[in-house]
Amino acid sequence: METYVVVDVETTGLSAAINEITEIGAIKVVDGRIVEILQALVKIDGYVPQHITKITGITNLMLQQEGYPREYVMGEFLKFVGELPLVAHNAPFDMAFINAGLARCGMRKLTNQAVDTVRLARSLHKGLASYKLGELARHFSITAKGIGVGRMQMHRSLGDCRITQLLYERLKKDMVV
Hints:
Number of helices: 7
Order of helices and strands: EEEHHHEHEHHH
Largest sheet: 5 strands, mixed
CATH class: Alpha Beta
Radius of gyration: 16 Å
Number of strands: 5
Strand content: 15-25%
Strand order of the largest sheet: 3-2-1-4-5
Helix content: 40-55%
């Protein structure tokens, strides 16, 4: 039985040292089936830049009205993932932001094993024009439509988690045992 957690964060920028998590999503998967979901908007100290809102649709007002305190979200995330292996698209980015968020809350850093689907795709499918999540989804005809999970769209945490999960399951078929 294979169990893992797919994670994705939306952020205010590209630097974990100065930018913040605005949304975190995680999907717990057992033998290829989603068994549990965590998704939360996060109240931040700063603001969401306009160009980020344009990409994600996440606004400052959304975070104020629907967001949870960072300490609460990070604590729930730690409980959710436990010691399970993590899967993320561009895992170093997500792990850096998650660990920075945990550090800001005085919580322990993640020590979970992490699989990076970008690295996996590059090693299994050399020479593709792009290894961005959307491009790989198009290349492998992966879509998150009609899967019964709310807020399932690209550039939102759950949508990206679901596409990453489907990509991971597809890439595992290409791995030589």
